[in-house]
Amino acid sequence: MTTDVGVPELDGAPLFLLDDLPETPELLVDGAEGRHAVDVLRLEPGERVRVGDGQGTVAEGEVVSAGPQGLRVAVSARFEVPAPRPEFVLVQALPKGDRGPLAVDLATELGVDRIVPWTASRCVTRWRDDRVAKGVAKWRAAARAASKQSRRPRVPEVTEPMSTREVCGLLGDADLAVVLHEQARRPMAGLTVPDSGTVAVVVGPEGGLTDGEVVAFRAAGAEPVRLGPEVLRTSTAGAAALAALSARTRWT
């Protein structure tokens, strides 16, 4: 199933992402993407596929050959997928272990457009100077892999880590900004969600938000809300919020 963005229905055709999508009648999907197509998916000549640049440009076509060099695709059509509205931004406190990439994976599948790693006061994980590049690279790789799996033509942006002050600036520019908090009185279901602009969601760390962070975010214009009676893990709370938002905007 596709959303109403003018994208042709391809009956579940797989999507491959290239850094560059040349304007040629034939495309070569090589490297890791090509190996996955040939060795794992075992695609054969005649099958329909899509190839995108991760920024909304997509070429669709038919496999011409599949072998050690990769997948050769004869292009039959090209189209541009517009950015969805509203834009969803997830401010994700750094989780411990592999839960960071998991949070990115789930959020990507559920429609996030921008992911902001946040160094909250109570984060167990800390990206020191020599670990920032590695951490961001892991999150970006997770976003790219999840985009292919969910056949999203636009890979979410993963920004550099932000401090609490920088996050406040981001929240101040959003059309709707919410902070997930288990002690909040207002349910997320009671919010009026705009159908355009930017919607930002803040998810705290395992140890929870400090009072100072909540005060700072409220001062920036964000509203504390609760998803439901359960307290979710930091790695899944963002995905749950995005699903709730999508059900009221993009999935209608």
So how many helices?
6
Estimate what percentage of residues fall within beta strands.
Answer: 15-25%
User: How many domains comprise the coordinates?
Assistant: 2
- Main pleated-sheet profile: 6 strands, parallel
Strand order of the largest sheet: 8-7-6-10-9-11
Question: What would you say this structure looks like, in words?
Answer:
The chain is α/β, with parallel strands linked by helices. The protein has two domains: about 15-80, Hypothetical PUA domain-like, domain 1 (Ribosomal Protein L25, Chain P, Beta Barrel); about 85-245, SPOUT methyltransferase, trefoil knot domain (Alpha/beta knot), CATH 3.40.1280. The chain is about 30% helix and about 25% strand. The protein is built from six helices and eleven strands. The protein has helices at about 30-40, 100-110, 130-150, 165-175, 210-220, 235-250; strands at about 15, 25-30, 50, 55-65, 70-80, 85-95, 115-120, 155-160, 175-180, 200-205, 225. The strands form two sheets. Strands 8-7-6-10-9-11 form a six-stranded parallel β-sheet, with helices on both faces. Strands 1-3-4-5-2 form a five-stranded mixed β-sheet. β4 (about 55-65) and β5 form a beta hairpin. α2 (about 100-110) runs parallel beside α3 (about 130-150). The radius of gyration is 20 Å and the shape is elongated. About 35% of the residues are buried.
